[in-house]
Design brief:
Strand content: 5-15%
Largest sheet: 5 strands, parallel
Radius of gyration: 16 Å
Helix content: 25-40%
Distance between the termini: 30 Å
Number of strands: 5
Order of helices and strands: HEHHEEHHEHEH
Shape: globular
Structural class: alpha/beta
Length: 200
Amino acid sequence: MALAGARRSGPLALVHVDGHSDFRHPGNYDVDASLGSAAGMDLALATGRGERLLTDWPEIASPLVADEQVIQIGERENRDPDFAWPDINSTAMTLIDVFAVRELGAAKVLEKTWATLARTGWPYWVHFDVDALDQTVMPAVDSPGSPGIDPDDLVAILAALVADPRCTGMDMTIFDPDLDPTGELAVLLVSLLGQMFAPR
């Protein structure tokens, strides 16, 4: 919804920082063998793949974001032989999986991101799913996993993105307070956000 609202002002790019690329759509799974749910679909829907009820927005040309203007950072399952959404590799999206992030470091990840964003110079939206962090750091999510982006690298990447004047907004998902009975993980998350938005 937030991305759609921002899109009303004109074309947008999308930086999708998530431990999963969320590219599930009717072209890569059996819709008759699964419960109806939009979980795991947000990037597919944003790029126009899925039922029209979820991809067509009043007064906005579909898709919300063109493949060429998507940077997906942090996918951790794409090198598995049974990766659920291999067709994402055939798109024009810029894909930087978690293994590449850990190998390249924040500065080079940002170089690749800026290069994609420079193709048009459009404003961009940032999606940050907390499960981009390793489950040993942030287990209070619906789909924890390993490996994850190092917290310092994650802060460096997101801080640079949100500080750029082209950034039109950011959403954050999917922290689950029920999985954080002591509140310590919420404190950690607030600390990370504070670092991301600290004046530089």
